[in-house]
Amino acid sequence: MSPSNSTIAASETLSQFSLEITAADAAAEIFVMTGDFFLVDRGVGRLVTKPLSPGIYKVKAKVNDQVWEQHVTLTQPGQKVTIPLFQFSSAAPLADTAKTHEYQVAAAESESRKIHYQLGQGSCICVFVREWRGKTPSGPPPATRPLMGLSLCDASEQEKVAFETTGKVDNSVPDPWGACTIAVNPGVYILRLTLPTGARYERTIVAAPGWQTQVFLLMSDYGAVRCADLVRGSVLMARGLGFSNADRSLRQIELARMALANERKVLKGETLEMLHGKFDNPMLGILGGHLLLLDVSPDLALLKIVVNNLRGVLNFQHPDVEALALAAGIGSQYVFTVPPMLRRSWALVVNATADRHDLVPSGCLADRSARNQWAVEPWLAWDMRDAIPGAADIAGTKEDFKVALQMRAFAAPAPSSSSSSASDSPFEAVRMLRAKTPKSRDFLAAPAPPSATVSVDPSKMGDLVRSLGVPRSTLEGMVQQMTVSGPAKSGAPAVRTGWCFAWPVAPRTVDGKDKAALVKGSRWNSGDAISVSFLDGDAALQERVKQAALIWTGPKLANLAFDFRKDTNDTLIRISFRYPGSWSSIGTTCKRLTGNTRPTMNFGWLTPQSTDDEVRGVVLHEFGHALGLIHEHQSPSASDIKWNRDAIIRDLSGPPNNWTIDDIEHNMFEAFAASETNFSALDPSSIMMYPIPPQWTLNGFSVGLNQSLSTVDQEFIRSQYP
Asked: What are phi and psi of 22, to 5 degrees?
């Protein structure tokens, strides 16, 4: 479509020309739009557009959260646009990136070529930690210890090297750094961070024969302590010894890592061709394999090629490669006693354990860490609180319980001498399974009745494995070992029946900011066709829901398509009407809820008797969550709302919601981080705004029930999905 108000003499000529656009970064997403925001073409890395009428177009490119734009006046054939390298942020001090000091580059290149400790031979691990306060940090160097608490352990969890006593540190430069390069035997190792408080965090590092695994970490705050940010950072690979700041393949790895973290489908052109051939760097192949799996219908034939190439390049059983082999249908005899490096690799392993118990043996580190894992995409890490005697019992995160509750994971008490009936509360069942002792946190606030053993319907075990994200051996061990509270309360579980509940399906992060990071990474790609199906419900009501949802993708709104299907196989959004309340997963996180009978969205409030206004309002709100939108009152721009906390807690802690204090904090008072959230000014008319009665605020702010898209809603969704 040509520009409606910027076409040059469109009526006087029938000539059309293609525009050739080349990005210096092969993973850059490219969009071409008319003056009134209609998307006319898109590509990745390089794009030769379809023939376009002469006129003014906007060329937009994106890498991670960075955007480049340029207006182009198309007047003749052969016009070209070159998009420069993006200055993205990386924990590795790579050339042409945003966080790079020359003295840190020199140190990384030098220290990665020195062996600070000889633990073995045949492979190498280099860990480089650095402070970053900006391009020109002011004041004296901070009194930090970059290598504090870091150590390398073998696969049996035995500490082998303490970095602070063996590595090199420079605290004299404006932003201090620390490095430790260790010669090791090829194998799987554990990078551990121990804080002064005794808290202990770990992640997997794999050392392949003939390769150096390079781990780059920035400093971060852990409460009052500042040390290496273990769960983020960059993991690169190089043949032999040495980091090279100018190595373009390392830049490709970082772009692939960011694309995977943000679920961006960037495997096209040169990068896709690379996967067909013999790529040089295994890390790029591993990340590329997972990027392939982002597609609704992934190319498994190509994934098999990738796995076989990786096995050939490495000549070594790499746990992340073997996880990809499971997804490709090749099969693997590898036993995952230690988790892989990537969270998505772990998810593949967990899903496979539904049918193969032997993949994760009971009692191994992968089993024991499964209940305390958290991640900042794409890496996987865990804390070892369970291994510390007397440590506080924390049975997973609140989000785990809520997701499992909405997914209807059932478990029933085993027969006993009592006459109590089986619990019909999935929340209670999941609380039973997740709890480590009878005294675990009880979100139902029920008095503890007599204990009972637990059994799980074997036919439900696979679904529970996928819903809870733990291996089958872990789940079976929990069932076998625990005793739990007896029959559930006769009342309904703590689910809101008058307010929307939107949840991000994501693992926990160390700093509690997973919500904001998730929203930023939960956007779809412009132009995506999102498959939708109904699991149940009245046919006429289903049609009304469909028509209301399609408002979001109408003219000049989101450049997306809702593909409503009758078959629930492989659909991303699965709608039910069976469960209490109305709720939805946020954006692309619905992809993590596997199983074609598991709802990702529910309309418990809607019936065939619901008015058109009610259907439209509720559906637009929940599908707004499905597009990645948050509740308006939790936007960073909502700071002007002065909440009457006492009134809100009093109202929501009672019927019909019966929320806990944690529920109220999470749904009402936790704001999203401005630095990690795309947002507009506060819009009281937004479809995403909760109704707020005047007694809930101290400054008279109130909002009624919005039932249609506001002007700001329309402008914002158009800007997010051009």
From this structure: -130, 130
Contacts 24+ apart (CB under 8 A), 652-655: 652/499
Per-residue pLDDT averaged across 69-74, rounded?
92
**DSSP summary character for residue 298:** -
DSSP string, 367-432: HHHGGGEE-STTB-EEE-GGGSTTPPP--S-HHHHHHHHHTT---EEPP-SS-PPPP--HHHHHHH
**Alpha-carbon gap, residue 672 to 663, rounded angstroms:** 16
- The position carrying tokens 């392949």 is 208
Name the strand (E) or helix (H) holding 465: helix 458-468
Distance CA 236, CA 579 (A): 45
State mean pLDDT over 358-366.
Answer: 90
Q: Are 359 and 209 in contact (CB under 8 A)?
A: no
Question: Of 315-324, 589-598, 628-637, where does mean pLDDT reach its minimum?
Answer: 628-637
Closest to 255 in 3D by CA, of 569, 29, 529, 77: 29
Rg for the chain, CA atoms, rounded: 26
pLDDT at 304 over 60: yes
The rounded distance, in Å, linking the Cα atoms of 446 and 438 is: 12
> What crossing angle do the helices spanning 426-434 and 398-406 adopt, rounded to 10°?
140
What counts of helices (H) and strands (E) characterise the chain?
19, 30
Task: Report how far residue 487's alpha carbon sits from residue 489's, in angstroms, rounded to the nearest whole number.
Answer: 7
Per-residue confidence (pLDDT) for residue 376, from 0 to 100:
67
Q: Does the bond joining 507 to the residue before it have cis omega, within 30 degrees of 0?
A: no
Q: How far is CA 460 from CA 407, 475, 577, 602, in A?
A: 12, 12, 21, 21
Average pLDDT over residues 160-176: 95
Determine the pLDDT at residue 685: 81
Instruction: Tell if the pTM clears 0.90, that is, is over it.
Output: no
- Which residues, other chains included, contact 199 with Cβ-Cβ below 8 Å and sequence gap of 6+? 222, 383, 385
Computed over every residue of the chain, the mean pLDDT equals 77
DSSP lists the bridge partners of residue 73 as 56
Give the length of the chain.
722
* CA pair distance 340, 343, nearest whole angstrom: 8
